[in-house]
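Hey Z.,

So I finally got round to the PBG thing we talked about over coffee. Here's the setup:
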Amino acid sequence: MGVNSKNMFPLNRNRRLRSKSSLRNLVRESSLSPNDFIVPLFICEGEKIKEEIKSMPEYYRLSLDNLKKEVRELWGIGIQAILLFVKVPDKLKDNAGSEAVNEDGLMQRAIKEIKNTVPEITIMTDIALDPYSIHGHDGIVKNNLILNDETNEVLSKMALSHAMSGADVLAPSDMMDGRVLAIRQELEKNGFHDTSIMSYSAKYASSFYGPFRDALGSKPGFGDKKTYQMDIGNRTEAIKEALSDIEEGADILMIKPGIAYLDIVRDIKNTINVPLAVYQVSAEYAMVKAGARLGWINHDEIMMEQLNSIKRAGANMIVSYFAKEAIKLIS
Ligand code: PBG
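And the result:
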């Protein structure tokens, strides 16, 4: 286009559409609603427990009674989905994920209780062995290696047991190769045709998960997760991961962490037409809380700006510890 293109000043002035709030509201390209959020919840054994997580201020581990209360409240403010994680007592951890497939385990009981309390809410569950592992790794360990195919067998049984308990969406976060296919086949074989899979497709080996591991006591006992989670320097590989998960039967793809990985979100959004979830992870939450407590940043404004940016980048849904606070501001 030449100098007479339609972007020519002064015929075009970008500030015109910014001149008043109602007009800005009218032309805004992305915005947030309660429908956008998935709320992660940490569950622990016991009764009447609401235990603050040290590195995640104002976020709690809940026993089942308080969990039910919380889910009722979330449903009341318009939240459509929750993502469940359990803190497994140390004595139940092993290297085989035995507790993960216990039909009377904490996760399985939690799913059933929520199903009975708020049947309409979408229940999503984390599928990975780390909370159940004596090694704090997402898979079965042998000679300091994380076994892939052996892990997939347990993950598919774990997924089936969540589905049998009433989970609507299974969210494998382990990053083993072929786990989506293994889970999908196990579900199909057992008649769970409508149970969805939200796959953590592009999950990076990130230090942004630190506070989460405090919450569940699931810090790796040796080494790191770099042989299964993605290298932080890689971009095109994320598309490869995403495509293979779709081929294996994933219904929703997830990218994680959020803010630092929005290039990946847009790449995948532009390449693949499936619903896309972004997980704004624990350290993203902790950093905002910390900065606000120091008085260095405006908590609510930074929170909303980050969530909005995730949406603008291409997320159809956001897993966020801020969901409840954000919804209060939206409405
Ligand atoms: C478990 C899992 C992790 C997170 C979600 N599922 C931790 C990890 O992979 O080490 C992190 C979420 C967060 O930091 O908020 N596989």
